[in-house]
Protein backbone atom coordinates (compact mmCIF):
# COMPACT_ATOMS: atom_id res chain seq x y z
CA UNK A 1 0.00 0.00 0.00
CA UNK A 2 1.18 3.54 -0.73
CA UNK A 3 1.27 6.19 1.93
CA UNK A 4 -0.55 9.48 1.55
CA UNK A 5 2.68 11.36 0.88
CA UNK A 6 3.63 8.92 -1.88
CA UNK A 7 0.22 9.25 -3.52
CA UNK A 8 0.39 13.04 -3.44
CA UNK A 9 3.87 12.94 -4.96
CA UNK A 10 2.68 10.69 -7.80
CA UNK A 11 -0.27 12.94 -8.47
CA UNK A 12 1.99 15.98 -8.71
CA UNK A 13 4.30 14.18 -11.11
CA UNK A 14 1.48 12.96 -13.35
CA UNK A 15 -0.80 15.93 -12.95
CA UNK A 16 -3.68 16.14 -15.37
CA UNK A 17 -4.91 19.56 -16.36
CA UNK A 18 -8.72 19.64 -16.42
CA UNK A 19 -10.43 22.36 -18.43
CA UNK A 20 -14.16 23.01 -18.16
CA UNK A 21 -15.62 24.56 -21.27
CA UNK A 22 -18.99 26.22 -20.57
CA UNK A 23 -22.02 25.72 -22.79
CA UNK A 24 -24.09 28.81 -23.43
CA UNK A 25 -27.40 27.02 -23.77
CA UNK A 26 -28.89 23.59 -24.26
CA UNK A 27 -31.22 24.51 -27.09
CA UNK A 28 -28.82 23.41 -29.80
CA UNK A 29 -30.58 20.02 -29.90
CA UNK A 30 -33.98 21.63 -30.44
CA UNK A 31 -33.93 21.53 -34.21
CA UNK A 32 -37.09 21.63 -36.34
CA UNK A 33 -38.53 18.31 -37.39
CA UNK A 34 -38.97 18.39 -41.14
CA UNK A 35 -40.43 14.88 -41.40
CA UNK A 36 -42.89 12.86 -39.38
CA UNK A 37 -41.63 9.81 -37.46
CA UNK A 38 -41.42 6.55 -39.35
CA UNK A 39 -44.31 5.02 -37.38
CA UNK A 40 -46.75 7.72 -38.59
CA UNK A 41 -49.32 6.49 -41.09
CA UNK A 42 -49.37 8.29 -44.41
CA UNK A 43 -52.41 10.54 -44.52
CA UNK A 44 -53.20 11.58 -48.09
CA UNK A 45 -53.19 9.42 -51.19
CA UNK A 46 -52.29 10.11 -54.78
CA UNK A 47 -55.25 11.60 -56.63
CA UNK A 48 -56.20 10.53 -60.12
CA UNK A 49 -58.70 11.82 -62.62
CA UNK A 50 -61.73 9.58 -62.07
CA UNK A 51 -63.56 11.15 -65.03
CA UNK A 52 -66.84 11.55 -63.15
CA UNK A 53 -69.75 13.28 -64.82
CA UNK A 54 -71.35 16.37 -63.31
CA UNK A 55 -74.30 14.33 -62.04
CA UNK A 56 -72.00 11.81 -60.36
CA UNK A 57 -69.97 14.59 -58.74
CA UNK A 58 -73.13 16.27 -57.42
CA UNK A 59 -74.37 12.95 -56.03
CA UNK A 60 -71.08 12.28 -54.26
CA UNK A 61 -71.07 15.78 -52.72
CA UNK A 62 -74.61 15.24 -51.46
CA UNK A 63 -73.61 11.94 -49.85
CA UNK A 64 -70.66 13.66 -48.16
CA UNK A 65 -72.90 16.38 -46.71
CA UNK A 66 -75.39 13.84 -45.39
CA UNK A 67 -72.60 11.79 -43.85
CA UNK A 68 -71.16 14.84 -42.06
CA UNK A 69 -74.61 15.86 -40.74
CA UNK A 70 -75.31 12.36 -39.46
CA UNK A 71 -71.91 12.31 -37.75
CA UNK A 72 -72.67 15.62 -36.00
CA UNK A 73 -76.04 14.30 -34.79
CA UNK A 74 -74.40 11.10 -33.56
CA UNK A 75 -71.82 13.05 -31.53
CA UNK A 76 -74.60 15.06 -29.87
CA UNK A 77 -76.48 11.86 -29.03
CA UNK A 78 -73.29 10.46 -27.45
CA UNK A 79 -73.13 13.54 -25.23
CA UNK A 80 -76.74 13.00 -24.14
CA UNK A 81 -76.07 9.36 -23.34
CA UNK A 82 -73.01 10.35 -21.36
CA UNK A 83 -74.97 13.00 -19.45
CA UNK A 84 -77.69 10.51 -18.48
CA UNK A 85 -75.14 7.91 -17.39
CA UNK A 86 -75.97 5.39 -20.08
CA UNK A 87 -72.30 4.82 -20.92
CA UNK A 88 -69.57 3.59 -18.58
CA UNK A 89 -71.86 3.74 -15.56
CA UNK A 90 -71.64 6.62 -13.08
CA UNK A 91 -69.54 9.62 -14.02
CA UNK A 92 -66.61 10.56 -11.80
CA UNK A 93 -66.65 13.87 -9.97
CA UNK A 94 -64.02 16.55 -10.31
CA UNK A 95 -61.22 16.55 -7.75
CA UNK A 96 -57.95 18.52 -7.57
CA UNK A 97 -55.16 16.65 -9.31
CA UNK A 98 -57.30 15.15 -12.08
CA UNK A 99 -56.28 15.90 -15.64
CA UNK A 100 -58.89 16.67 -18.29
CA UNK A 101 -58.52 16.38 -22.02
CA UNK A 102 -57.60 19.27 -24.27
CA UNK A 103 -58.99 20.42 -27.61
CA UNK A 104 -57.65 21.17 -31.08
CA UNK A 105 -58.33 24.70 -32.30
CA UNK A 106 -57.63 26.87 -35.30
CA UNK A 107 -56.05 30.30 -34.95
CA UNK A 108 -58.33 32.57 -36.98
CA UNK A 109 -57.07 36.06 -36.14
CA UNK A 110 -56.65 38.81 -33.53
CA UNK A 111 -59.12 41.26 -32.08
CA UNK A 112 -58.93 43.97 -29.40
CA UNK A 113 -61.19 44.12 -26.38
CA UNK A 114 -61.61 46.86 -23.80
CA UNK A 115 -62.17 46.78 -20.07
CA UNK A 116 -64.81 48.91 -18.38
CA UNK A 117 -62.19 51.48 -17.39
CA UNK A 118 -61.00 51.85 -21.01
CA UNK A 119 -57.90 49.66 -20.99
CA UNK A 120 -57.21 47.93 -24.31
CA UNK A 121 -56.49 44.19 -24.35
CA UNK A 122 -55.10 42.36 -27.38
CA UNK A 123 -56.64 38.94 -27.85
CA UNK A 124 -56.40 35.99 -30.23
CA UNK A 125 -59.44 34.19 -31.63
CA UNK A 126 -59.30 30.39 -31.49
CA UNK A 127 -62.01 28.26 -33.09
CA UNK A 128 -62.64 24.67 -31.99
CA UNK A 129 -63.56 22.92 -35.24
CA UNK A 130 -65.42 19.57 -35.15
CA UNK A 131 -63.54 18.07 -32.20
CA UNK A 132 -64.47 14.45 -31.47
CA UNK A 133 -62.95 11.71 -29.36
CA UNK A 134 -61.52 8.94 -31.55
CA UNK A 135 -60.13 6.49 -29.01
CA UNK A 136 -59.17 6.09 -25.37
CA UNK A 137 -56.09 4.07 -24.42
CA UNK A 138 -55.96 2.94 -20.76
CA UNK A 139 -52.75 3.41 -18.76
CA UNK A 140 -51.80 -0.27 -18.84
CA UNK A 141 -51.95 -0.27 -22.67
CA UNK A 142 -50.50 3.16 -23.40
CA UNK A 143 -46.88 2.74 -24.45
CA UNK A 144 -45.71 5.74 -26.46
CA UNK A 145 -42.91 5.35 -28.98
CA UNK A 146 -41.04 8.12 -27.16
CA UNK A 147 -41.37 8.36 -23.39
CA UNK A 148 -42.13 11.89 -22.08
CA UNK A 149 -39.48 13.81 -20.20
CA UNK A 150 -41.24 13.51 -16.84
CA UNK A 151 -41.08 10.09 -15.19
CA UNK A 152 -44.15 7.90 -15.33
CA UNK A 153 -46.34 8.16 -12.23
CA UNK A 154 -47.06 4.57 -11.26
CA UNK A 155 -49.32 5.47 -8.32
CA UNK A 156 -51.68 7.56 -10.43
CA UNK A 157 -50.97 6.57 -14.04
CA UNK A 158 -52.41 8.54 -16.92
CA UNK A 159 -54.21 7.26 -19.99
CA UNK A 160 -54.24 8.66 -23.50
CA UNK A 161 -57.18 10.21 -25.32
CA UNK A 162 -56.94 10.50 -29.11
CA UNK A 163 -58.87 13.53 -30.38
CA UNK A 164 -59.57 14.46 -34.01
CA UNK A 165 -60.56 17.81 -35.49
CA UNK A 166 -62.05 19.14 -38.74
CA UNK A 167 -63.97 16.74 -40.95
CA UNK A 168 -62.18 15.71 -44.12
CA UNK A 169 -63.13 14.13 -47.41
CA UNK A 170 -62.74 10.34 -46.90
CA UNK A 171 -61.80 9.89 -50.54
CA UNK A 172 -58.65 11.98 -50.02
CA UNK A 173 -57.17 9.82 -47.25
CA UNK A 174 -55.28 6.58 -47.51
CA UNK A 175 -56.81 3.28 -46.50
CA UNK A 176 -54.43 2.94 -43.55
CA UNK A 177 -55.23 6.41 -42.20
CA UNK A 178 -58.98 5.96 -42.58
CA UNK A 179 -58.67 2.63 -40.75
CA UNK A 180 -57.73 4.52 -37.57
CA UNK A 181 -61.34 5.75 -37.37
CA UNK A 182 -63.05 2.49 -38.35
CA UNK A 183 -63.67 1.10 -34.86
CA UNK A 184 -64.73 4.44 -33.36
CA UNK A 185 -67.36 5.20 -35.99
CA UNK A 186 -65.98 8.74 -36.43
CA UNK A 187 -65.44 10.28 -39.83
CA UNK A 188 -61.76 10.66 -40.79
CA UNK A 189 -60.34 13.89 -39.42
CA UNK A 190 -57.69 16.16 -40.87
CA UNK A 191 -55.88 16.62 -37.56
CA UNK A 192 -55.15 14.25 -34.67
CA UNK A 193 -53.68 14.85 -31.24
CA UNK A 194 -53.02 12.74 -28.15
CA UNK A 195 -53.86 14.19 -24.74
CA UNK A 196 -52.66 12.63 -21.50
CA UNK A 197 -55.68 12.36 -19.16
CA UNK A 198 -56.61 10.77 -15.87
CA UNK A 199 -58.55 7.49 -16.09
CA UNK A 200 -61.52 9.28 -14.47
CA UNK A 201 -61.60 11.78 -17.37
CA UNK A 202 -61.93 9.23 -20.16
CA UNK A 203 -64.61 9.77 -22.79
CA UNK A 204 -66.29 7.31 -25.16
CA UNK A 205 -65.55 7.40 -28.87
CA UNK A 206 -67.56 9.91 -30.84
CA UNK A 207 -68.02 12.39 -27.97
CA UNK A 208 -68.05 15.97 -29.21
CA UNK A 209 -65.78 18.57 -27.59
CA UNK A 210 -67.01 22.15 -27.88
CA UNK A 211 -66.01 25.54 -26.54
CA UNK A 212 -68.18 24.81 -23.49
CA UNK A 213 -65.34 22.56 -22.32
CA UNK A 214 -63.84 25.76 -20.87
CA UNK A 215 -65.36 28.64 -18.91
CA UNK A 216 -64.91 32.38 -19.22
CA UNK A 217 -62.14 33.37 -16.83
CA UNK A 218 -60.28 30.04 -16.96
CA UNK A 219 -56.55 29.95 -17.67
CA UNK A 220 -55.25 27.68 -20.42
CA UNK A 221 -51.96 26.69 -22.04
CA UNK A 222 -51.74 27.00 -25.84
CA UNK A 223 -49.20 25.01 -27.84
CA UNK A 224 -48.46 25.91 -31.46
CA UNK A 225 -45.86 25.64 -34.20
CA UNK A 226 -44.05 28.89 -34.92
CA UNK A 227 -43.93 30.40 -38.38
CA UNK A 228 -41.23 28.85 -40.56
CA UNK A 229 -38.93 31.72 -41.59
CA UNK A 230 -36.27 29.58 -43.22
CA UNK A 231 -32.56 30.45 -43.02
CA UNK A 232 -32.11 33.90 -41.46
CA UNK A 233 -29.25 36.05 -40.26
CA UNK A 234 -28.48 37.17 -36.74
CA UNK A 235 -30.27 40.51 -37.08
CA UNK A 236 -33.65 38.95 -37.77
CA UNK A 237 -33.12 35.67 -35.93
CA UNK A 238 -31.65 37.02 -32.67
CA UNK A 239 -32.30 40.76 -32.86
CA UNK A 240 -28.68 41.88 -33.22
CA UNK A 241 -28.18 45.61 -33.70
CA UNK A 242 -25.57 45.25 -36.42
CA UNK A 243 -22.60 47.48 -37.21
CA UNK A 244 -22.77 51.19 -38.10
CA UNK A 245 -23.91 52.15 -41.55
CA UNK A 246 -20.90 54.36 -42.28
CA UNK A 247 -17.58 55.62 -40.85
CA UNK A 248 -15.26 52.95 -42.10
CA UNK A 249 -17.54 49.91 -41.90
CA UNK A 250 -17.12 47.76 -44.98
CA UNK A 251 -19.52 44.91 -45.77
CA UNK A 252 -20.15 44.01 -42.12
CA UNK A 253 -23.37 45.89 -41.47
CA UNK A 254 -25.42 42.79 -40.63
CA UNK A 255 -22.64 40.38 -39.70
CA UNK A 256 -22.48 38.72 -36.26
CA UNK A 257 -18.91 39.88 -35.57
CA UNK A 258 -16.44 38.19 -33.25
CA UNK A 259 -17.85 35.10 -31.50
CA UNK A 260 -14.97 34.69 -29.03
CA UNK A 261 -13.91 31.21 -30.09
CA UNK A 262 -10.13 31.64 -30.03
CA UNK A 263 -7.50 30.74 -27.45
CA UNK A 264 -7.61 27.38 -25.74
CA UNK A 265 -11.14 26.73 -26.95
CA UNK A 266 -10.48 27.02 -30.67
CA UNK A 267 -14.03 25.99 -31.42
CA UNK A 268 -17.57 27.34 -31.56
CA UNK A 269 -19.41 26.96 -28.28
CA UNK A 270 -22.68 25.07 -28.51
CA UNK A 271 -25.53 27.53 -28.29
CA UNK A 272 -23.72 30.48 -29.83
CA UNK A 273 -26.17 32.80 -31.55
CA UNK A 274 -25.35 32.50 -35.23
CA UNK A 275 -27.29 32.52 -38.52
CA UNK A 276 -29.47 29.46 -39.03
CA UNK A 277 -32.96 28.10 -39.43
CA UNK A 278 -35.61 30.28 -37.80
CA UNK A 279 -39.07 29.12 -36.76
CA UNK A 280 -40.87 25.79 -37.25
CA UNK A 281 -40.52 24.98 -33.55
CA UNK A 282 -43.14 24.09 -30.97
CA UNK A 283 -43.76 26.78 -28.38
CA UNK A 284 -46.16 26.83 -25.42
CA UNK A 285 -47.72 29.95 -23.89
CA UNK A 286 -48.91 29.28 -20.38
CA UNK A 287 -51.51 30.98 -18.23
CA UNK A 288 -53.59 32.69 -20.94
CA UNK A 289 -57.01 33.82 -19.74
CA UNK A 290 -60.23 33.22 -21.65
CA UNK A 291 -62.05 36.56 -21.95
CA UNK A 292 -64.98 35.78 -24.23
CA UNK A 293 -66.78 32.76 -25.68
CA UNK A 294 -69.11 32.38 -28.66
CA UNK A 295 -71.05 29.07 -28.45
CA UNK A 296 -72.55 29.37 -31.94
CA UNK A 297 -69.25 29.17 -33.80
CA UNK A 298 -67.17 27.56 -30.99
CA UNK A 299 -64.83 30.56 -30.80
CA UNK A 300 -62.94 31.78 -27.75
CA UNK A 301 -61.09 35.05 -27.21
CA UNK A 302 -57.79 34.32 -25.43
CA UNK A 303 -55.60 37.04 -23.92
CA UNK A 304 -52.36 37.67 -25.80
CA UNK A 305 -51.31 38.28 -29.39
CA UNK A 306 -48.17 36.15 -29.54
CA UNK A 307 -49.61 32.66 -29.85
CA UNK A 308 -47.36 30.64 -32.13
CA UNK A 309 -48.50 29.79 -35.63
CA UNK A 310 -49.84 31.21 -38.86
CA UNK A 311 -53.39 32.35 -39.38
CA UNK A 312 -55.60 29.25 -39.83
CA UNK A 313 -52.84 27.24 -38.15
CA UNK A 314 -53.59 24.46 -35.67
CA UNK A 315 -52.96 24.90 -31.94
CA UNK A 316 -53.64 22.69 -28.93
CA UNK A 317 -55.44 24.05 -25.85
CA UNK A 318 -55.53 22.41 -22.43
CA UNK A 319 -55.84 23.39 -18.77
CA UNK A 320 -52.87 25.32 -17.49
CA UNK A 321 -50.29 23.66 -15.30
CA UNK A 322 -49.32 26.85 -13.45
CA UNK A 323 -49.99 26.31 -9.74
CA UNK A 324 -51.48 29.76 -9.09
CA UNK A 325 -53.83 29.63 -12.09
CA UNK A 326 -55.18 26.10 -11.90
CA UNK A 327 -58.78 25.27 -11.11
CA UNK A 328 -59.51 26.12 -7.50
CA UNK A 329 -56.81 28.81 -7.20
CA UNK A 330 -57.52 32.39 -6.24
CA UNK A 331 -58.78 34.49 -9.16
CA UNK A 332 -60.07 31.46 -11.09
CA UNK A 333 -63.87 30.99 -11.48
CA UNK A 334 -65.31 29.24 -8.46
CA UNK A 335 -66.68 25.74 -8.68
CA UNK A 336 -65.47 22.66 -10.51
CA UNK A 337 -64.86 22.81 -14.28
CA UNK A 338 -66.98 20.75 -16.69
CA UNK A 339 -65.80 17.22 -16.01
CA UNK A 340 -64.94 15.15 -17.96
CA UNK A 341 -66.38 17.66 -20.46
CA UNK A 342 -69.43 19.86 -20.92
CA UNK A 343 -72.25 17.30 -21.05
CA UNK A 344 -74.82 19.99 -21.88
CA UNK A 345 -73.15 22.53 -24.19
CA UNK A 346 -74.38 26.09 -24.27
CA UNK A 347 -77.17 26.68 -26.84
CA UNK A 348 -76.03 28.30 -30.06
CA UNK A 349 -78.53 31.16 -29.73
CA UNK A 350 -77.45 32.11 -26.21
CA UNK A 351 -75.09 34.81 -27.48
CA UNK A 352 -71.54 35.63 -26.47
CA UNK A 353 -70.40 35.22 -22.86
CA UNK A 354 -68.14 38.01 -21.63
CA UNK A 355 -65.86 38.40 -18.65
CA UNK A 356 -67.35 40.72 -16.05
CA UNK A 357 -64.42 43.14 -16.23
CA UNK A 358 -64.85 43.66 -20.00
CA UNK A 359 -67.03 46.24 -21.67
CA UNK A 360 -69.87 44.57 -23.56
CA UNK A 361 -70.54 46.60 -26.72
CA UNK A 362 -74.10 45.30 -26.86
CA UNK A 363 -74.89 47.45 -23.82
CA UNK A 364 -75.13 51.24 -23.81
CA UNK A 365 -72.18 53.09 -22.38
CA UNK A 366 -73.51 56.67 -22.74
CA UNK A 367 -77.06 57.67 -21.83
CA UNK A 368 -78.80 61.00 -22.22
CA UNK A 369 -81.62 62.22 -20.00
CA UNK A 370 -84.72 63.82 -21.42
CA UNK A 371 -83.87 67.27 -19.99
CA UNK A 372 -80.32 67.45 -21.33
CA UNK A 373 -79.57 69.85 -24.12
Can you put this structure into words, describing what you see?
The chain has 373 residues and is α+β, with helices and mostly antiparallel strands. The protein is 13% helix and 24% strand. It has a domain at 57-142 and 156-165 and 191-228 and 275-352: Translation factors (Elongation Factor Tu (Ef-tu), domain 3), CATH 2.40.30.10. The chain is built from four helices and 13 strands. Strand 1 (103-114) and strand 2 (120-128) form a beta hairpin. The longest helix is centred in the first third of the chain and has 30 residues, at 54-83. Mean pLDDT is 83; it is low at 15-21.
Distinctive features:
structural constituent of ribosome; 373 residues; Ribosomal_uL3_bac/org-type; ribosomal protein; Elongation Factor Tu (Ef-tu), domain 3; Large ribosomal subunit protein uL3m; 4 helices; Ribosomal_uL3; six-stranded antiparallel beta barrel; alpha+beta
List the helices and strands and how they pair.
Layout: H1 4-13, H2 54-83, E1 103-114, E2 120-128, E3 131-137, E4 159-167, H3 175-178, E5 189-197, E6 208-209, E7 219-225, E8 230-232, H4 234-238, E9 276-278, E10 282-294, E11 299-303, E12 313-319, E13 353-354
Can you tell me the CATH topology of one domain? Elongation Factor Tu (Ef-tu), domain 3
Order of helices and strands: HHEEEEHEEEEHEEEEE
Distance between the termini: 109 Å
Under CATH, the homologous superfamily of one domain reads Translation factors
Mean pLDDT: 83
Tell me the major beta sheet: 6 strands, antiparallel, barrel
Overall CATH architecture of one domain = Beta Barrel
Structural shape:
globular
- How much of the residues is beta strand, in percent? 15-25%
- How many separate helices? 4
**What structural class do helix, strand and pairing data support?**
alpha+beta
Amino acid sequence: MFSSSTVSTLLRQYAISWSIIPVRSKNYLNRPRLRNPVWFVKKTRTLHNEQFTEDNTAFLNEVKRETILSAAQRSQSNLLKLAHGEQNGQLAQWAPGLKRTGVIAKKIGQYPLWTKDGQKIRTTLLQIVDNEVVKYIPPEEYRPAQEPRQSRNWRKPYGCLLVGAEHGDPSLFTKEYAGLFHESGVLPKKHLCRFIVSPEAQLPSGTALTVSHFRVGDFVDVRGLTVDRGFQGVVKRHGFKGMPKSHGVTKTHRRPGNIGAGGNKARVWPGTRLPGHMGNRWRVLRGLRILRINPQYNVMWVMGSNIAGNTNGIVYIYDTILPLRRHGAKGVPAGPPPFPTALEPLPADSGDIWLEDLHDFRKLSITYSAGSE
